[in-house]
Amino acid sequence: MPELPFELEVEEVYGLREQGEDFLLLDVREADEVATAKIEGSVHIPLNDLPAAVQTGKFAPGKDKHIIVHCHHGMRSARATSFLRAAGYGTAQNMAGGIEEWSARVDPGVPRY
User: Fold this and answer.
1) Residue in 109, 78, 107 with CA at minimum distance from that of residue 18
2) What share of the chain is helix, strand, coil (3-state, %, to 5)?
3) pLDDT in tens, 9-39
4) pLDDT tens digits for 47-78?
5) How far is CA 102 from CA 41, 86, 90, 95, 111, in A?
6) What residues pair up with 95 in beta bridges, in sequence order?
7) Could you tell me if residue 86 is left (phi over 0), alpha (psi between -120 and 50 degrees) or otherwise beta?
8) What dihedral do alpha carbons 106, 107, 108, 112 form, nearest 10°?
9) Which helix or strand (DSSP H or E) is residue 52 part of?
10) Alpha-carbon 61 to chain mean position
C-alpha cells in the first residue's frame, strides 16, 4: 500500500466512513474525556497506554490495517500517529482537529467540551 498522508481532515474521515472504508478509528484521549464525548465505533486506548498495548499485543491490528487516530484537538493523536508509524503501522493517520473539529464540522450531536 502506498504511503498515506500524515493527516486527514475530519470531512475526509467522515467520507471514508460513508464509503464503507475499512479502518480502525483509535481514540487516544483519557477515559473521562471519552465519557463526555465519543465518536461511535472508535476504539479507546489512552496515549500513555499505547506503547504498552502495542508491545503486549493488546493493540495488534495487522501492520497494513488503516488506522485513523484522534484525540481532543489533534496534538496527542499526532504523537500517537508518529509512534504507530515508527512501530511499523505505516498506514496510521492523524485526524486533524480531533473530536472538537468532528463535532463542529461533521456531527454536532457529539458534545463539545
Assistant:
1) 107
2) 40, 15, 45
3) 999 999 999 999 999 999 999 999 999 999 9
4) 999 999 999 999 999 889 999 999 999 999 99
5) 14, 26, 24, 9, 10
6) 8
7) alpha
8) -90
9) helix 50-56
10) 13
Whole-angstrom distance, CA of residue 17 vs CA of residue 92: 16
Q: For residue 53, give the amino acid letter.
A: A
Pull the grid cell for residue 77. 493523536
Q: Which three cell numbers stand for residue 48?
A: 500513555
What is d(CA 93, CA 70) in angstroms, rounded to the nearest whole number? 9
In sequence order, what are the residues at sequence separation of 6 or more whose Cβ sits closer than 8 angstroms to the Cβ of residue 9? 96, 97, 101
* Phi, psi angles (nearest 5°) of residue 91: -100, 10
Residue 1 has pLDDT above 80, yes or no: no
d(CA 47, CA 26): 10
